[in-house]
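Dear colleagues,

For the upcoming journal club I promised to circulate an example of a predicted protein-ligand complex. I picked one with iron/sulfur cluster because it came up in last month's discussion. The inputs are reproduced below in full, followed by the predicted structure.
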Amino acid sequence: MRVFFIYPDLGSFLPRHFQHGIGFLSAALKKAGHSTRLLYLSELWPSEKLVEETRRFAPGLVCLSGTTHQYRYLAQIAGWLKSSLPRIPVICGGVHAMLASEEVISHPGIDMVCRGEGEDALVELADALDRGREYHAIKNLWVKWKGELVRNPLRPLVEDLDSLPFPDRELFDHQAVLDQDDQRLSLLVGRGCPYDCSYCANQAKRQLYQGIGKYVRLRSVDNLLAEIALCAEKYKIRSLDFNDDIFTLNRPWMEEFCAKYPQKFSWPFRINVHAGTVDPAIFQKLASIGAEMVRIGVESGSERVRRQILSRRIKEEEIEKSFQWAEQAGIKTWSFNMVGLPGETAEDALATYNLNRRLFPDHMQVSVFNPYPSTRLFELCQKQNYIRGELTDGYFVPQSVLNFRSLNPAEIHNWHQRLMRLSLVCRNGKVLKRRLSGKTVLCNLADELCRAEVSAPVPDYYGEELIIIYEESRRALIMHPPCRIRYELELPMAAVFSFGIMMHPGIYDRGEKGGVKFFVRAGKSAGSLEQIFAHQLDAKARKEDCGFFDFEIELAKFSPGRMTLELGTEAGDPAHNQFNTAGFTNPIIVAKNPGIDNHKNMAGGKSCSARTP
Ligand code: B12
Ligand code: SF4
């Protein structure tokens, strides 16, 4: 049987990604002899085009999958398909179908809903449809059958995750998925979470699954490594991302992983952890085998909110320690935060802000709270009559769907913006901290901009901006060419100029012929400047020119003492210069470390953090 998956990944603000659920389902169907296809929608197609695409594949079954945010698109698509292709049965699954089954099954375009794990149920359904057999009694499914709704019970949870075939990545054109995210391979180590946070789908799922098996399960380490090895054969990979809610749940499993992973692979990897499941030794061990980034849930800086609203019994001290331990082990940190929680006050939001300032993570993820169906917090919001609108597309949207007294929607929006701003400051601060570790900063040229002499055709050509390329954010002196910034400096010792150059990521596709020429000139006085650096970037013509490019230039010839330093940009082709915005990033002068020979990094030298998309 031909099975057609439709996944509307709309409004999540994420690059095209691998959806594990569909991957597992497709693998199970293929193993059972069925064929599958996926329509991955990054934008909503017009109904005729979508119907035509479905008709062309001539499926015996259409499968819709998505989260709560995506449900409104699933519903729309189901409606179009039912009115144009009424004979093709439509089944809907995923976290929303599971936790808001009544809503989903009430949609006239949806014939069936999958309430539990889908592998066995979907294969049974496809087999039945293929052979023209009745399919109304399949466990895990609610089925509209002869004018009635059959609510079948749940089947046991898959006990042995190793028994499942590896998820089907081919369906997603997986190399393209990897290429869009720095070739980071997304993996799942297990299913389920033992905690009981009131806002999380896991809490609701565990409730739903009571009595049908163990909720928290892990694949064997060997099974996981075998999947990584298979992916390594098929795809170009640069790093791994374990997307499980908590990677550090099971100590013996972790130890086995730490022993076996480095025997086979050396890719850096990212994990999520719960602050209550880690200690310094775990981080040291994980760092030694490649952990490069750890994401930790802070959610709220207010103990009251964590305990009374979120049911997260974790002390501030534990959170702070977990970040410190990760840092000490050399692992980058990422905090998850929410704002706009029901009953939250400005004081609570400030506590989240202040806690993050202390944690100073490499990245802060900030979401406005969304109440997800069947969670305790959703029920509370409903009971208190807090829900005032429909859920937005993704949870990076700064608008709240709640209306409660202690923090109104405008205040929530403001707190979101303040936290986002802090995120940028932390990200840039961390980049600088790493780059300058052990060095003495003599002058931060971004701070000194107000004292510099600027020459630009119009004032708008220059300014300061925080620029993000991939996940790295930097303070940049924007200098739309032609532009020159000249500093008069008094340096107390021999110095090195450390800086990056970049073309503005907003113009990668629009930049014009020739790109931008960057130069640095220096001299003991303004009248005696000599060029000590020149480089040209043309991000539109050369993909490898997208990113930050770092340099260090020794200023020993000009320091200590008074000197003039001039940064400049010129258009590669002055006749085509409208969109070539560019700049110098984190321009800083540091003391020359006598132990290091800076000559090797001189003008035109290597770019140490250049990244291409
Ligand atoms: C991995 C993960 C991600 C990954 C991968 C996303 C993905 N869609 O696979 C990334 C990091 C990209 C991600 C992003 C986001 N995520 Co996320 N993510 C998860 C996580 C940790 C695991 C999901 C998973 O793969 N589970 C394993 C698979 C096998 O299970 P499954 O998806 O449920 O699929 C099974 C069944 O549901 C069923 N099934 C699924 N689809 C279908 C279809 C049919 C036809 C049938 C029959 C059965 C069926 O069968 C599958 C196999 O058994 C969950 C939390 C959790 N523990 O579940 C959150 C979770 C799904 N994410 C969530 C959210 C909110 C997001 C974001 C919106 C955040 C944002 N950026 O705004 C985005 C949305 C991205 C998107 N478009 O999906 C929420 C969703 C809550 C909700 N009610 O909607 C969850 C539940 C976490 C939470 N906060 O509670 N996420
Ligand atoms: S620890 Fe994380 S995944 Fe587990 S229930 Fe709490 S929020 Fe959900």
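Two points we might discuss: Residues 193, 195, 197, 200, 202-203, 245, 274, 297 surround iron/sulfur cluster (ligand 2) (CB under 6 Å). The radius of gyration is 27 Å.

See you all on Thursday,
B. R.
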